[in-house]
Amino acid sequence: MPHFSIEYSANLDSRVDMNALCALISDTILETGLFEVGAVRVRAFRAEAYSVADRLPENGFIDMSFRIGAGRSAEEKQRTGEAIFSAVGAYLAPLFTTPHFALSLEIREIDPDLSWKKNAIHPRLRGK
Ligand SMILES: O=C(O)C/C(=C\C=C(/O)C(=O)O)C(=O)O
């Protein structure tokens, strides 16, 4: 599966709808045309313990990690990252109006020789 994980500081709970953010990211991934719908998984993890920058209590972060299968070109991976970072940045624009928030994204490739997968969703969605 292409795995998209979000880690976020708990102080964003009241400021970001994480389910809506996951849906936005899923839609954006699929809009690239590079990933199958049955393969995409997006989830968010809340960090209860964290220390950000100068430790002001209002400091917060979202760090995003996208693990994808090997085989896509550098241009395709770049385009995917740009699309996701742009969509998420726009969604989170209110958080950038004060100097207390940091956003990051990394795309990594999964080693095909060191990964295993079994997916019962593909047969249901392929060909639709
Ligand atoms: O190759 C991978 O592990 C990731 C991937 C697709 C995975 C599936 O289709 C699956 O687990 O069913 C990808 O498109 O990057």
TrEMBL record:
Keywords: Isomerase
InterPro entries the UniProt entry points to: 5-COMe_2-OHmuconate_Isoase, Tautomerase/MIF_sf
Alphabetized Gene3D superfamilies for the sequence: Macrophage Migration Inhibitory Factor
GO molecular function, one term: 5-carboxymethyl-2-hydroxymuconate delta-isomerase activity
PANTHER family: 4-HYDROXYPHENYLACETATE CATABOLISM PROTEIN
Protein name: 5-carboxymethyl-2-hydroxymuconate Delta-isomerase
Organism: Paradevosia tibetensis
